Fold:
Amino acid sequence: MILVAPSILSADFAFLLDEVKRMEKAGADWLHVDVMDGHFVPNITMGPLVLHALKSKVELFMDVHLMVERPQDFLLPFNEAGAQLITVHVEASPHLHRVIQSIKNMGCQAGVALNPATPLGSLQYVLEELDLVLLMTVNPGFGGQRFIQAVVPKIRELAREKERRGLTFKIQVDGGINKETAPIVVEAGADVLVAGSAIFNNREPNALIHAFKLLPQPEKGV
Ligand code: DX5
Ligand code: ZN
Structure:
């Protein structure tokens, strides 16, 4: 079944805990925590203190998406704050293999994210190590952007490679995911959907989350 991860970026920050609880009640699987540093992306969001404050009050699996330069400097603080999965960008990680090992050595799941223009080849030698690959379907930095259709063949290619090599990492997509684009990415092979504006700005997030979860996934080996 598809996992759904609402992106905290689209929450009303004046009522952050209420907003996160609203997602938990609506059936979300993960909370997608978007961390931006004003350098890797032109926006600033939150640090480990905010995650720590939320962690003890909700049960959601904490999925931390680091859109920061020098992600290696922030692994420990986010792990201690309650991250269960930490995803770093390949574009910000010249020593990618080392960063992945550092995440796993802390007992955390490890993910790597690729911007829309970054080729899959950059993951060739680390795929075996990963719990998750995040394919960005917008350029990171802001919620509410338009889905980039050109990433769909990249999702399909990654799903084929995963099956060919018998690997088990999850394929997450992030950016512009809504009721029109979700079926397209799931058909291509995505199994974790991040959605910010589509879920938070929805009067009935339960219905949308459940519709996402029930999207038909492609059969293996076809
Ligand atoms: C973009 C973030 C996303 C964003 C998604 O830089 O990584 O998680 O919040 O928002 P929507 O779903 O509105 O495109
Ligand atoms: Zn994100």
Residues 7, 32, 34, 65, 174, 194 surround zinc ion (ligand 2) (CB under 6 Å).
